[in-house]
Amino acid sequence: MINVRSVNLCFDHQTVARPVLQDISFQIPPYGSCAIIGPSGCGKTSLLFLLSGLLQPDSGEIVIAGTPNCGTILQNFGLFPWKTVYQNIGLGLVLQRKKKSFIQERVTRLLREMGLGGFEEHYPGQLSGGMQQRVALARALATEPEILFMDEPLSSLDALTRERLQNLILDVWQAKRITAVLVTHSIEEAVFLGRRIIVLSKRPGRILRIVDNPGAGEPDYRQSEYFFHQCGILRETLKGEENGQQT
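The structure assignment produced for this chain is given below.
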């Protein structure tokens, strides 16, 4: 369980504290998936960094049950260009001082699961954007995280590659039984992947709406009437914020 209670965040700019997030409260159940969506600059990434512990709130609290192992995927993939695919995937395990045989077994399995077999000696610059994203996902999964944080990981990909990787993320979430938190600009992506969707306002980010979305993860959800209904709810909420209306 992730429990966010009355969180506020400010950034200092030329000695003036400027609010980024205001009075943010929500919960994410264990093994749930949550998508965070809102206008550009509303504080989505800052909220993700708060959840992952990379930032600390100015007030309020974020309580995560237990002491879970977490993985993070950044928007630009965060791969080391001077390391091979194999080395990038195994990096977290090396830092954890795992045995070489353990690392080899884990990385080999992930290469197979991610469809990266035969590319272990390639460097990121030799791969397509979709393949780089699969390497980033494999690296995040190598340490078997209980919570996976993703900051617009698919934003730079073409539509078909993005859809294939959305399916892959969904498969990973269901098979590994992890809690997944995704920041995205895409309404359709939020509805496809998020069992709970947090809609933020313009900066300073406030919660406009929390949309429960139980259809996420169901077969052929993209083609269902309910999927388009949920997309419409998000679209109207964001449009109302853009027009300065209350939703």
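Interim note for the steering committee: The mean pLDDT is 92. The chain has two domains: 2-68+146-242, 80-143.
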